[in-house]
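Changelog-adjacent note: as of this version, every example in the card shows the full chain rather than a window. The one below runs 433 residues end to end.
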Amino acid sequence: MAERARQKAGEVDARVAAGEAGSLAGTILAVKDLIVMKGGRVTCGSRILADFVSPYDATVVERLEAQDAVIIAKTNMDEFAMGSSNENSHFGAVRNPHDRQRVPGGSSGGSCAAVAAGMVTAALGSDTGGSIRQPAAFCGVVGLKPTYGRVSRYGLVAFASSFDQIGPIAQTVQDAGDLFRAMAGHDPKDSTSAQLAVPVLDEHSGEKIKGLRIGLPKEYFADGLAADIRTAIDQLVARLAADGAEIVDVSLPHTEYAIAAYYIITTAEASSNLARYDGARYGYRAEQSDSLEEMYVRSRSEGFGEEVKRRIMLGTYVLSAGYYDAYYRKAQQVRTLVRRDFEQAFTVCDCLLTPTTPTTAFKLGEKTADPLNMYLSDVYTVSVNLAGLPAMSVPCGVDSANLPLGVQIIGNAFDETTVLKLGRHIEQSRVER
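Full-length structure tokens:
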């Protein structure tokens, strides 16, 4: 996006000189390549959209540029945001800046890697089941997934429409909060956008957490959590208690069903959303087809990658006659139970503290042959999306191999303020130590 970036930078220079600069002047951004920008390609990491040029800007792009942020590039991603390692892109895998033989996480791996490597001040990602928070933890940066409906999805290419949410990725909680504040708010172009005022974020709100009730859900600390991550979070909890926070043990009993419900509902929505890529209207079209049906089949077979095709087929299956009630309807019922678990937990605490991921970054190619094992990388993040809640991953040290690890803060619906407040405190306490 070099030409657009240079033009915008010139405008910002002039506004700075005139004393009229926006709140994000000097911020250099990258944008995940499923958020549209007028006149630029939006590929979604897929061959089927490799040459598609957007005719309009996403609302978040308009709002960030209105505050004088300069967007310099689009970032690589798992194809159509389907993946937990950023190995599913048509354009090749993204590597983790901390260890180039390891994954950065996904599907917003390109955005997180760019921030971690210092290429940009911050970046935008999207989070359907952990796609901001999981790579943020792997790359040692801050990643915020706002409440569903808090940030406009207008101009976000859909994966699963009742889950997808745009959010910021940054080096600090303060920067993430500043981007969130600039992006958030009602948008009449998005029918799922909440008509709620954006909270005013106190720059010093993270300094005092005395009396804050922090819940620890026992299901997130069971078998499967790496010892280094458990130890780091135990040490963090002890510091928070010493700083005056009240630590509360809570239970989210339907957590064990979240992964299954998530992959049924999201693949069903993906099957519907991705039906529009047929080779007829836009995107990749197979050559020399002898019939309309063959053109459809060949265009989709050649244009989509293996993971996307796997999820389309799974989604079509669970929506088909004879299986809808057994799978899709049951998964929606489980989604309601997961949401009620959180509602009950928030009657006794103000926010929840959990691991972001069960392990630190794994090696490239380690899980590509085992999709189920790959899906379990999101075991601590998908419940938040099922319930539509805000959550943020904050760096929480490194493991024995010096790889970053993250802690996840989960807030009640539309309470990003508490999430950011605790995130600031954790960040500041790490700096002070």
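Structural remarks: Residues 2-198+356-432 form a domain with the Amidase signature (AS) enzymes fold (CATH 3.90.1300.10).
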